[in-house]
Structure formats: structure tokens, C-alpha cells
Amino acid sequence: MSTADRETVTGVPPGIAAAREELTPMLSQYAELCAAHEDALVLFQVGDFYEAFCEAAEAVARTCEVTLTERSDSTGDYPMAGIPIDNAASYLESLLDAGYRIAIGDQVEDAEAASGLVDRAVTEVITPGTVVEDDLLESGTTNYVAAVAAEPAGSTLGLAAVDVATGECLVTAGDPGTVAEELDRIAPAEVVVGPGVAGGDEDRETASIAFEPAAGDPDRTVHGYDPAVFERRAALDRLEPYLSAPERRFDGDAELRAAGAVLAYAEYTQGDDGPLAYVSRVRRYDPRDRLRLDAAAQRSLELFENRGLGASDTLFDALDSTNCALGRRCLERWLRRPLVDADAIRSRHDAVGELADRTLVREGIADALATAYDLERLVGRVSRGRADARDLRSLYATLAVVPELKATLAEGDERGEGDEGGRPADLPRTDHLRALRDRLDELAEVRELIDSAIAADPPQEITEGGVISAGFDDDLDDLRATEREGRQWVADLEAEERDRTGIDSLSVGHNQVHGYYIEVTDANLDRVPDDYRRRQTLKNSERYYTPALKEREEEIVGAAERADALEYELFVEVRDRVAEETERVQALADALAELDALASLATVAVEHDYVRPEVVDDPDAGIEIEGGRHPVVERAEASFVPNDADLPRGSIAVITGPNMSGKSTYMRAVALAVVLAQTGSFVPAQAARLPVFSRLFTRVGASDDIAGGQSTFMREMSELTEILHDAGPDSLVLLDEVGRGTATTDGRAIARAAAEFVHDELGATTLFATHYHDLTDLADERERAFNLHFTATREDGEVTFLHRVVPGASSSSYGVEVAELAGVPDPVVERSRELVAETEAGAGATPDPERTDRGVDPDREPDPDAGDVSLREFLAEEEADDPPAIEPADDPAAGDEADSGPDAEPGIGTDPGIGAEPGTDGDLDTGSTPDASGDLPPSVAAELRDLDLGRTTPIEALNALHDLQNRLENDDD
Length: 973
Known about the structure:
Layout: H1 3-7, H2 14-17, H3 25-36, E1 41-46, E2 49-53, H4 54-64, E3 69-73, E4 76-84, H5 89-97, E5 102-107, E6 120-126, E7 144-150, E8 157-163, E9 168-174, H6 176-186, E10 190-193, E11 221-224, H7 232-239, H8 253-269, E12 281-284, E13 292-293, H9 295-300, H10 315-319, H11 325-336, H12 342-357, H13 359-369, H14 375-384, H15 389-399, H16 402-409, H17 431-438, H18 444-453, H19 474-501, E14 507-511, E15 515-521, E16 533-537, E17 541-545, H20 547-579, H21 582-607, E18 614-616, E19 623-628, H22 633-636, E20 643-647, E21 652-656, H23 663-679, E22 687-691, E23 695-700, H24 712-726, E24 731-736, H25 744-762, E25 765-769, H26 778-781, E26 785-795, E27 798-807, H27 815-821, H28 826-842, H29 849-854, H30 871-879, H31 938-946, H32 954-972
Parallel strand pairs: 1-5, 7-10, 9-12, 10-11, 13-23, 18-22, 21-25, 21-26, 23-24, 24-25
Antiparallel strand pairs: 1-2, 2-4, 3-4, 5-6, 7-8, 8-9, 14-15, 15-17, 16-17, 19-20, 19-22, 26-27
């Protein structure tokens, strides 16, 4: 939606503004609320609907697909559209998705008790980052609104983010790059920016600091807010109710301004009723205290979002075996911000290992937490005064599992843990779980209060009675007794009056308008007693009351009304008493969340055969993984080939191999092992010894950014630029196909220069996958560089990818074969093979019919300094040091010219595919080895013909020939 379109429906709609002086009292009230919330679309309660008028109504009707109607009065006709209050969630979600902020104008006065116009006020402003309604929030997720503030005359930005539903608040600061990275990590739904920051009232040209708040997520809502709340004095005043001495809690003005601004915005959206008491966890953090993963790394490693079309499997999905919303949210936080402290990592591993070993305990935890509700959101509603009786019962049900969890953690398991008397030993065994058990506050007094005060199955409405348990309050019990006795008197009245009057059809009833009545049909009117007083005339009957019935009615109604009012007062009192324990409930929620996350990691480790990694904090330690697997891919495939990884610290592994052989999967698997280990998880491997990294960078795959004016190549170069500027010795770097998307010469040059820079200047541990095969020379030129390649076999024209990584460089990428496997039409495949052969021939290489049949690597280019080497020439060069691999035949005529005719047995000298140009007899005499193929066994001769030097390293060729010689010698024996 354009800004112009939004301006016509937020604030006072033009159609209302034009008739402002003539409006009815109700529409004047609507206009006042719109004027007070110029940035929002106001939904105005009228009875059971939220209504909008004029241009705002047209937007609501169009967005929510509801009927546009019309309100007419003496001042004119006004289009209107409404959504039902009882079913508003889906409509509100549509408006939020359309980019609106929504101000809810509720009736804050009982319509029946009001004299004249019902009072209304905006009780809540709903925005993408400040949604608190469960119907609009996904269970187990965080929903942050963030504020970014600039430090006056400085280059530092402050960042603060608050989850309005749970009360969590995070604060940090840094340069624009660091803050952008943290925004990507926190992933707020909405960002408000202060003066000097682009994205609000400032554009890129006038902003004092170059910063793009939505760079990592183009769909992120970014806008300005009242500049006054970003002022230092205003921020200090705002923070006083949340923190003591706030000026000493933050590292600089930028953090303080951001924290004050985000809390001011949160208060505004919740009705401007003052500080949010449940926001009690305002925490400053340093990004360097966690493994830093930027947006590119999160995307390419598919931590939370799978880039494949229609795919949903991510690393988080693979780890998530949590049982409640608290644990799911905790696990996501851990994965977004892995640890960098080795002792803290090992402590988590200790806890995961114990839970993995103690099956019954782990299962008991899962069963108990499966019944737990979202304490963080529940206590948030309690603190805001928006919790109903059912919320309090949900809170009680969750508190009720805490004693069970504490007992479960201390129980011996199926291995017979315990002392000789059968009593539990010192369980849990690990310090981490013992400390966690001690944090499980049972909150017995809160639990007992709710259980004694709130009915077991209360109604949703808290103003109509039935929410307070019998026996909790004597006065309430007396009122309810009076009400019950009166209703029983009325129930007995019908039988008594039938006996007294003799009218068998007489009935006693009640309605909201006329109260209690005695109904008599017209046929029996002559038997109506004199003490009956007419109340209502119907078509075929009359309704009456008696003085005694009237007196009872007043007694019943009075008792019911007083009881309902007293119940509401008692409920609010109970809710307020629970709210006083908000911090304790939040601390318990943190402990339950951590316990659930640890149990989830243990469950995944057991069910999918993960191993505890050995974490070493030696700065010289490298990555050692035995039988490593990709945690997501292995579940999607019927079989998975594990691979080892041995990467010394600061080394660069140049990885070559065929397309589709698994290079990218391998690199990601290594990186994910690091992420998992530093999250606190076990890793999918047979064994792992891992260092602690501070940053992880990836340049793995990219797409263009048309809206941002960036091509695929430009995106890749931008990501590479960030790596080359920011990586260091404590970084793990993944580089895949650097230099593609431009001319081969330029791409190869960029790839080599980047690899050399990473090795020489950065010292980062690096996995570098490439199809530029000449980059494998780095292993000879750089001390810490080495080659790895993925293997493949080719038999009868069919290529099989083995997905196995081995030392050394690959000789082919099998590009044409992959094209064929992908379903490229046969004519294109065949023509590709011809062009490859022609290119090699034009470059001085010897064409190979086998290549023409099965294709060659289109990315591999000839070395201009190397001559064309046939198999005969290669053997001739080797003969100076070694005896001939195959002895000449005894037949002196074996090498005659006549034997090279059409009937001759094909051999080394006649196969035009090995060392011979097409159209020649192929007899390239080396002067030392006559053609003996006529005497070779057919299988050996065929293998000699199939030996392709263009795809075979010298060592591989020597090994092959050595094997053939051994076979011949064995045959002779």
C-alpha cells in the first residue's frame, strides 16, 4: 500500500473531516479518537461490532472482504463497515498484513448504565510488533518491536527490543553493521527509528548514519515515532519505573535512548496506562558474548527458513522436540544466539547428556510439560489486567506440575540409581540440572489462592458471575444463597398457584424486559384471583404478577446483581495478588523453558544418534569430525553418506568435485556441527572435537535482489566483502563458488585473490568449494591450504556420485552429465559434448571419443603452460626411471605397420581416443614401447582404452597401470 493510500484511511477520514462541525455526538466522538491517533486506523465499538466510517470503512471493507453499508442521519450519509467483536482476530490479522496500525476504540462504560452517549476510549493500538492477543500470535514464538536510536554526533547506534506479550526486553549497541546483524538475529516484526536514522522521517540522504533497518528483511515494518521519546531526559524518566539508576545500567547514550523509546512505544500501544509492570527483565547484552550469525549465514544454513520451494525442514525443525511454548521459544533463542564460553557450553552438554542417559526422567519431564501453558504470556495478561478466570486456571494448572517435575528430576531411573536403601542418590548428577531444579519455584501460595478462589470450570466472561468458588467469601455465599432460595421459591410458586386457582395451564416465567410473571391463557381469565396484577397482554394470554412475586423478584435480582458485582471485585483482587508475583512467575517460566529445551536436545540426540562433542578452548585447536552428517538432509534422504572433517585452525580446504556430489552439503554439515555444539546440542557424528568460534560467515548460494537493484553477482560480492572485512582467526568461513556470475577470467581471479587473502591476512578456518580446478594449486603455494575432493565413478557412460570426501584434487565436474541427469533434451546434451570436445581440440588438447560420448567438465579450462600429453608420451617420460609397465610381445611382427590395419586388435597404438588425433593411424612411436595390445587379454586391453588421462591424475594413471601389470604377471604365472 502506498503512503498516500494509507493517509486517506488513518487519522480522521476526509469524509468525516469535511463535515466535522455538523457531526452527530457519536461520529464526533469517532473523529476525536481518529485525530488523537493519526497514524492508525480507528475501529470504533458500536454494540457488538467494531465500525469504521467513510474512507476508512472502504479500506476495511476491501481488506477484510466485508459488506460496505451506510449510516444516514440529519447531517448526511456516511459509508460504514464493521467486523464482529467476538470474531475479530482474523479481520485484524488481515489489516495488519495490509500494513495498518489499528487503534481499538472500546466502550469503557456500560451502555445500559450510560445516560446519553456511551463513553469510548482507545484501549489498545495493535501493530505488527506489539500484538498480544493469542489469536494473532503463533504459539511458542517471540514477537519483538525494536527501536534504533543514534548517538548525537557519533557513529554508534543503540538497539532495544521488547516482546510486549512476554515482557522480555533486550538492549545493546554498536556500529551500523553490528546493529543490522543484531536486527537480523532478533528478527523484530516492527522497528521504530529515531532522529538521524533512515527509515522513519529521515531518508537516506538526510540521515546522519548510513543504516538500513529493513536490509535483512524487506517485509519488516519500519517507521518513525515521536522524536521526543528518543531524548536522553525523556528516556531516563521512562526507564525509572523499570530500573533503578538506569543511567548506570547502559553503555552510552545510544542504548539508553533506544530503551526509553521502545518502552514508550510499547506503553502507547497498550493504552498509555503507564509503565508495563511485567516488563521486569530489561537486559543489556554484548553481541560478542554469543556466536555471531548474520542474515546471510542464517539463510544459507537454513536455521529457521528453508530456501527450497515448498520446503519447510530447517535446523530448528530438526531440533524441536519441545513439549510446551516456553521451551520452543527458549530453543529458538539458543539457536539464534549460540554460546562462546566453553564452560557454559560444556555445562549445557552435561545436562543434555544426563537427560539422554536417564530415559524415564526425560519422558517424565516431557509428560509433565506437555500440560503446561505459556506462563510468560499468561502472566503478561495478568499484569496488564486482561486475564480472565480461565487464564488464572491455566496458570494454576502449570504451577501444579512444578512439584511433579522436581520429584522427577530427583528420581532414580531404570538403571537403579539410588542408595542402598532405595532412596534417590544425589540426583540430578550434574551441577546444571541441580541448579535448574532449585530454580523451580513451586509458588505454593499463588497456586493455593487460585485453586481456592477460582471455579474449576469458569465462564469466559468475568462480569456475569460463576467465576468465584463457593466458600471463598462468606458475603458472596450469602448473596448466592439468597438468590438460590428466591429462585426455588419461584419454582415452587407455579405448583402452588395451580392448586390455588385450579388453572392447570398456568405457568411462571421470566424475561429480561418484564422480569418474573404468571401467564394465564384467555380461556381461563375468569378464574384469575383478585390479587393478580396485569403485567403484559399477549395474543392468546395475559401475564400477571403478585405483590409477593414482585417482592421476591426484587430480592432475587438484587442478590444476583450484588453477587455478580462482588464476584468481579473478588476476581480483580485475586488477579492483582497474582500480579504481585509476576517476577517470580517469570523466573519460573525461564526455568521451565530451559528444562524443556534441554530435554528436547536430549531426545533428538537419543533418537537420531547424535554424539557429545568434545569442546576445546585452545586457540590453536581445529575442527575434527568423524562420520559427520547433515542433521536435516539425513532425515530427508533414504540414505546418507557420513564424512570426516579434519580442519586445522586457520587452514583453508579447497574442495573440488562433480556437481551434485555433496560439496555444499558437506560444508554446511561442518558449520552446523559448530552451531549445534555451541548451542548446547550434541552433533550428528560418530565423534567430534571442536573449538569455539566467535563468528560464522557464509557465501553459499545467492539470488538477485531486483528491488534493491542488485544482481546475483552483486549480492555475492557484497557478502564476500563483509567476510573479507570482518572475519578473523576465531571465524569459521564457508565460501562456495566465489566468482561465478561473471567472465571466467574475472571470476577465477576473484576466487584466487579472495582465497589468498583469507589465508594470508585473515587466518580464518575456511571451507572453499570451487569449480575452478586450477585453484587447487593453493595447496602447493600456501602452508595452511590443502585439497579435498568428492569422488564419482563412471561405468558404461553412467556417472555415480559417491558423496565421499577424500584428500586431493578432483579432475572433473561432470557438468554435461549433470545436465543430462536434470533432463536436458538429448540434442542439447549431445551438442554440448561436441562443443566441449571442439573446445579442447581448439585449445590444443587431444579429443577423446569417450568424452564425446559421456561429456567433460565445461568449467575446466586447459593450462596454457602445459603441452598435450598422450598416454604413450606419459609412459615414455616415466620409462626413464621405471621399467616398462607392459613387456613387449614375443612376436617380432607385433609392431609392424600391417598390424595397424582394420583387422588389428585395438590397442594403445590404434585407439584414437588416447594420444592420437582423429583421422590418423594413432601409431605415435615413443621409440621404446612397441604395440603389444594384440597379445593382451581383452579385459586388460579394454581398460587401457578406457583410461582417460584428461580425467586422471598422474598418480591415478600409474596406479592403474601398476594394477594391470600385476594382473598380467599373475595370469602368466
